[in-house]
Amino acid sequence: MRETWEPERGIEREREREREREREGESEEEEVETHHMARSCSRSVSARRSALAAGQRSAEAVLGRRRQKRSSGG
Asked: pLDDT per residue over 23-38, tens digit each?
């Protein structure tokens, strides 16, 4: 039971994130990048979620900061 239930929750969360991204108007490239980052680091998911709770502008600021870190090799 648990094995089938857990992935379903993940799919639901992924759908929520996709809706959020559409509202933010991010490009498909960013979408894939964010999805990969979310998988590789659960911290990015919570960081993004708390940012969204604080407001869309905060979310964009967090995403921008994270992108800068990635490009500088951090």
From this structure: 776 545 555 555 555 5
What 8-state DSSP symbol labels residue 38? H
Distances (CA, A) of 54 to 48, 62, 71: 10, 11, 25
Domain span at residue 40 reads 2-71
Q: Is there a contact between 74 and 41 (Cβ–Cβ < 8 Å)?
A: no
Structural domains of the chain, count: 1
User: What's the pTM?
Assistant: 0.25
SS3 state of residue 27:
coil
